[in-house]
Amino acid sequence: IYTVQPDEVAVELRFGQPKSELSQPGLHFHWWPIETVETAKISEQLVSIGGGASSGSGLMLSGDQNIVNVQFSVAYQVSDPKAYLFDVSDPDGMLAQVAESAMREVVGRRPAQDIFRDDRQGIATAVREIIQGTLDGYKTGLQVNAVSIEDAAPPREVADAFDEVQRAEQDEDKFVEQANQYSNQKLGQARGQAAQIREDAAAYKNRVVQEAEGEAQRFISVYNEYAKAPDVTRKRLYLETMERILKDSNKVVVEPGNGQGVLPYLPLPALQPKAPPSPLGAATGGNQ
Hints:
The protein is an alpha+beta fold. It has helices at 81-86, 91-107, 112-118, 120-138, 159-228, 230-246, 268-271, 279-287, and strands at 2-4, 8-14, 17-18, 26-28, 35-41, 45-49, 59-61, 67-78, 142-153. Helix 2 packs across helix 4. The chain starts with a strand and ends with a helix.
């Protein structure tokens, strides 16, 4: 009699050969010693790799030749109990070795910044695919559910220098962002000014066109009147023009026939408009 726990399955072996059916959780009976039992835990398990102070498993070389200390974990479970129990001698140890090798492979193709900050999720996904493909090739009966990068940092010996580089990169990002904001602000102002200039130009164009059309229409109406009565129209235009010219000027009318043979005398200085006295002259005259 044997008991299978809730998170386990069991495989019975008769004369060393596994039976086809699996024993589910509960109480079971088998014929001992011709039958034996092997159990496998089917609940999700977690293995952590790297991060130890004395272990070098987490130290890896990135694609840009930087040393990074990566600590990550792999969540897995048994998908094929028979393959897990009988095809590989140490599937759990093999999983840890394959996971470390896969992480080194992916990290070696990426810059350190991807591991530290930029693309941890992409790296974890690539590592999980490599691990699963390798385990399937060895028929370990394991299924990888997730890979999680828990920590990635430079070695302690160069941590201070790396922090300085990180701060410099953050300052660079901040300055670039400020420059982009300034550029967007100036571009927005320039676009607004350009739009205002275009609107002013369009308004000026419309005004000039309307004035020209009005002048043309007035000329056409005058021409139509002129065509009806040329003499009258010429006389009217002459009188209107003279009225506009002489409206604000002093006028002297000389009647024809008076003083024939004698050059008329025109008091031109008296006709000139008198300038108002200057304040300085008025003050001088008052003192006298």
